[in-house]
Amino acid sequence: MLLKPSLALACLVAIATPLSAQQELFDAPSTSGLLARTTTSGETAIQKEARSVANGKVELEPLDFLLSPEDILRHPNASRRLLGKDVQPGTAARLVWKPSNTFSGMAVETPVLVVNGAYDGPTLCLTAAVHGDELNGIEMVRRVMYELDPGKLRGMVIGVPIVNLLGFSRNSRYLPDRRDLNRFFPGNPRGSVASRIAAAFFSDVVRHCDRLVDLHTGSFYRTNIPQLRADMTNPKVADFVELFGAIPVLSSAGNSRSLRAAAVQAGIPTVTMEAGEPMRLQRDMVEVGVNEIMTLMAKSGMYSGLDLWLNRAPAFYDSAWVRANASGILFSSMELGAEVASGDILGVISDPITNAQHDIVSPYKGRILGMALDQFVMPGFAVYHIGIHATKGSQAQSPDGEDGPEDDAYGSELPGEPADTMQAQDPGAAVLRADDKFDDE
Q1: Has residue 428 got a pLDDT over 70?
Q2: CA separation for the pair 220, 384 (Å, rounded)
Q3: Could you say which of 156, 245, 328, 423 would form a disulfide bridge with 349 (CB–CB 3.0 to 4.6 Å)?
Q4: Is the sign of the CA dihedral 163, 167, 172, 176 positive or negative?
Q5: CA-CA distance, 178 to 188, in Å (whole number)?
Q6: Tell me: the pLDDT tens digits for 59-93?
Q7: Average pLDDT of 312-328?
Q8: Confidence (pLDDT) at 284
């Protein structure tokens, strides 16, 4: 009897099937990467692997090394074990992580892409869709993993395109119990559903990483410019950030239960890359993210053949959310990424009944790192996230256990979580100071 493909396999094929076999959303990646090659039988490597995963097997393909034998002998890589499989040097594999069972009792199979280089080197991990409705990171991981050539790679790259497969399958940010997976790391194997999934992922994947980039977007009708979130007071994290290109950096420790904070606490230099908005794929955001990841690998010496990158962008050591203090329809006057001065009008809230107009005025000089899309807003809704030019010593620390701005704006559904504090500045806006701010990771 034939078995239907699992949800995870269906998602993998949807992400990874060669663009010639589906409607092209982006420019096709180069075919130099091992994962993108076609077998001699005419069957694509992806189709072959999909069939092998369905049969409970994982097949590895050899590579004709592009590096000289002398160099390989001087710095040989070794077989690396992940998720119960040995990945040989110069090969790529598609593995399966099974975090938990569904209500039907069937294991949830989450695809994990691995490229093990010919040279010895560190392990870089790329994670996306910890929030299931954030799509840009999924495409970034696919693009990077399928463009990598193991013959040019030092070390190993692990890509998990969809960490929260349960949320992704429902077009939801959350797990089925509406808990935010990014508030439960490093997890507890005897805790709640979310805590157990977090513990399994942290143990099975994250602890194998030497460096980690967690990919996100804005949340709930908000968008972010491409940016890094990093604890710049941590020397290892600060050194890691220097390996990226011209992308702004917002310095913060982050929520203590986020994947980023938990990984840093475990000694793994980790950053969050924010880019764009949820529920859609954005070509420009994906392109920036892919370029930044490839720059990271080139500057760190992990990948050869790339020798051009832009200068580092400045870091913001303070930030604040400007929130609405009136109800109505938001019309933004400023664009995402704009530099603003204190007193600039960021947007207008228009009352659809009385026609009253409420200006939202910036109390700070800085740059708009994130903002709400034009929509109906209510008092307290987080509208503009401003990165403030401040000294390094003023880095904000997010209070433990607090939600992102989107959860606070809609009202928390989980018990025991602290409320926010804010100070009114003008009739149209309120400001949440950086030391009280919420992370939207």
Answers
A1: no
A2: 13
A3: 328
A4: negative
A5: 18
A6: 333 333 344 545 545 566 778 899 999 999 999 99
A7: 91
A8: 96
User: Considering the entire predicted model, what is its pTM?
Assistant: 0.77
More confidently predicted of 434 and 152: 152
- Across 244-399, where does the E strand assignment appear? 249-251, 270-276, 315-316, 318-324, 328-332, 339-340, 345-350, 357-361, 366-372, 376-377, 382-388
Q: What are phi and psi of 23, to 5 degrees?
A: -60, 130
For residues 159, 206, 117, 46, the Cα torsion angle rounded to the nearest 10 degrees is -30
Secondary structure E strands in 351-421 = 357-361, 366-372, 376-377, 382-388
Q: What is the mean pLDDT of the chain?
A: 78
Kindly state the DSSP code that residue 87 receives in the 8-state scheme.
E
d(CA 201, CA 183): 13
Alpha helices in 7-68 (DSSP H): 7-16, 45-54
Cis ω for the linkage preceding 89 (within 30 of 0): no
Higher per-residue confidence, 238 vs 408? 238
List phi, psi (to 5°) of 103: -65, -20
* Measured distance CA(137)–CA(128) in Å, rounded: 5
Amino acid (1-letter code) at residue 221? Y
CA dist., res. 125 & res. 264, Å (int): 13
The number of residues in the chain equals 441
Q: Where does residue 355 rank: exposed (0-12), middle (13-18), buried (19+ CB within 10 A)? A: exposed
CB 319 within 8 A of CB 437: yes
Q: How far is CA 211 from CA 157, 189, 272, 389, in A?
A: 10, 24, 11, 28
Amino acid at 138: I
Kind of pairing between the strands at 119-128 and 154-160:
parallel
- The pLDDT of residue 394: 54
Going by their DSSP bridges, the two strands 357-361 and 366-372 should be labelled as unpaired
Q: In this structure, how many other beta carbons lie within 10 angstroms of the beta carbon of residue 27? A: 10
Tokens 């696919």 belong to residue: 142
**In 69-181, which ranges are continuous DSSP H helix?**
69-74, 136-147, 165-168
